[in-house]
Design brief:
315 residues, 78% helix, globular
């Protein structure tokens, strides 16, 4: 039961993360400026997380930790939050939410490929030594099933759009797919297990705040103030994806941070976002029903996630 808890957290996180894809598409269709979609999420997250961490009595510890490594916090927070969410909001202009969610699953492959950038301490008879994490080959093979499904979905979509539109919709998502696990894992190293998920999310939000303020100023002069609808939808994204989903996902990765294979498996649970995004768009946005070929691609993605989970449990 204990080993399945991180997977459960990951699946629940994928449900709440799917609100980002659905709401971003809704804001785009209603004429909302994508930079407002990006910045408002984190501006709304800040007071919510601040209250939670203060009630839990953990704010002073967080601020002290951040003060000691401020530039490190700012750098990896800009990667994990800024280079993750800004490209995702931009890509919402070039396809439905479920398509962006499907392309986002490249992050599962990215998580496996990023493993050599991290190391772990192993205690030996000669004392503790630090070793580089190997690429989890079996996990990567399972990830390729997911990547194959993404390719199938994108190939059909590409036939309906210009080459430039496909690139503008896909490349930002790939950038975000590498930035999110990289920023998350690096911040886990920085925190060294001293901060909980709420503190880590609040800390990264605070550290990336200069970016969101600058983007808001630019959006204000370029596009004017956001509409009431966009403000409300951004608040939903902030609560569901920014707070609930991120805390669940960070908690799950914290539970398995000692195992690169289980970490990859938890990251693979995000494939569930596709199913949730499809259902949400069909119900809320009356979006077009995905074609049979798209469903084959999505089934490949979900099967890859299941194989990832089963292999992790076996190990």
């Amino acid at each position: 039961m204990k080993s399945s808890l991180p997977m459960l957290y990951g699946i629940l996180a994928s449900f709440f993360f799917s609100f980002s894809f659905i709401m971003n598409r809704a804001m785009e269709l209603s004429g909302g400026y994508w930079i407002w979609s990006a910045s408002l999420r984190y501006l709304f997250m800040l007071p919510i997380l601040l209250v939670i961490v203060m009630i839990r009595g953990n704010l002073r510890v967080l601020l002290t930790h951040m003060q000691k490594q401020l530039w490190t916090w700012m750098g990896w927070s800009l990667v994990g939050f800024g280079l993750f969410y800004v490209p995702l909001c931009f890509s919402a202009a070039y396809g439905p939410g479920w398509l962006i969610a499907a392309s986002w699953q490249v992050t599962i492959v990215a998580g496996s490929l990023l493993a050599p950038l991290f190391s772990k301490v192993i205690v030996t008879t000669d004392g503790p030594i630090r070793m580089k994490e190997p690429i989890p080959v079996k996990g990567l093979l399972m990830s390729l099933i997911i990547l194959f499904g993404v390719v199938i979905i994108q190939l059909e979509h590409a036939s309906l759009l210009s080459f430039n539109d496909v690139l503008l919709g896909l490349i930002p998502v790939i950038l975000a797919a590498f930035a999110y696990p990289l920023g998350n894992r690096k911040m886990m190293e920085v925190c060294e297990g001293r901060l909980d998920a709420y503190q880590r999310v609040l800390g990264m939000t605070l550290a990336s705040l200069p970016l969101w303020i600058l983007l808001s100023i630019y959006a204000l002069f370029y596009a004017g103030t956001p509409s009431a609808g966009q403000i409300g939808q951004s608040a939903i994204v902030a609560i569901c994806s920014g707070v609930i989903a991120t805390v669940l996902f960070f908690s799950a990765t914290d539970m398995v941070k000692g195992s690169v294979n289980q970490l990859a498996a938890v990251e693979a649970t995000q494939a569930g976002e596709i199913i949730f995004a499809v259902g949400g768009e069909l119900v809320l946005l009356t979006a077009a029903f995905p074609s049979a070929l798209s469903w084959i691609g999505m089934i490949c993605v979900v099967l890859g996630m299941i194989f990832h989970s089963l292999m992790s449990e076996k190990r």
